[in-house]
Design brief:
With 233 residues, the chain is of the alpha+beta class. Helices cover 37% and strands 22% of the residues. A 3-stranded antiparallel β-sheet has the order 1-6-7. A two-stranded antiparallel sheet has the order 2-5. A two-stranded antiparallel ribbon has the order 3-4.
Length: 233
Amino acid sequence: MPIGNPENDAPESYRKAMLRIGGANPHGKPKWRVVLAQNCTRKSSGVLHHLPTGEISVFDTDGRGRIHERRSIGDRVESGTFELPRYPVDGWIVERWFPPETWGTPETWAAQRSADGGRILASEFPSQGDYFMTCGPFDELPELGALENAIQMWEHSYRNRPTNTLQVYKDLLDKEEQVREARRLKLENDLNYMRKNELVPVLKSGSLEAQRVRDDLQRMIGDPSHLGAVLNP
């Protein structure tokens, strides 16, 4: 089955709507588009393994008709440059245009090599940017209203994404330290409250129960002296 042109997959009404919803990229094309995933390809170099189908069609010697045979067909290995599917899915997907720097530099692009030493990415560096899938696949063409809401949400999230990962990491560490300090202060305040409102009154009491508590504390701290019946404040 021949590969179609993704730019023409969606109806014209959708293409115009996507341009209205998402705007145009610096090259005048829609920033967002709805396409069929199976029509999105990329040139790649390397070794391609053709898996066996187990079924072939042949004609008899008299040409009287086609005969279907099932026989074992070995794998076929081919090396070269191929137009391969870009996504491992079929169906309608939503793509967004990203600027060239998203894909690195021309040098890093060309430096990617396959096992046989050939270039993995045989296509030219996307100097005008390129599209990439953001959501999907869908069995049916999504409604324009749903697409518009999804695009607005995605763009909002993208605009507010972290741009300095080191600063984000530092902020996370600072926040964790603030949480730890808050917990330490709370524990310290709780202990002070217990000491003033619960422990000290017991230690100052002359009751037998208070004396038992003081004796227990004495044994716990290993102090050979006697706390006495009443502590001075």
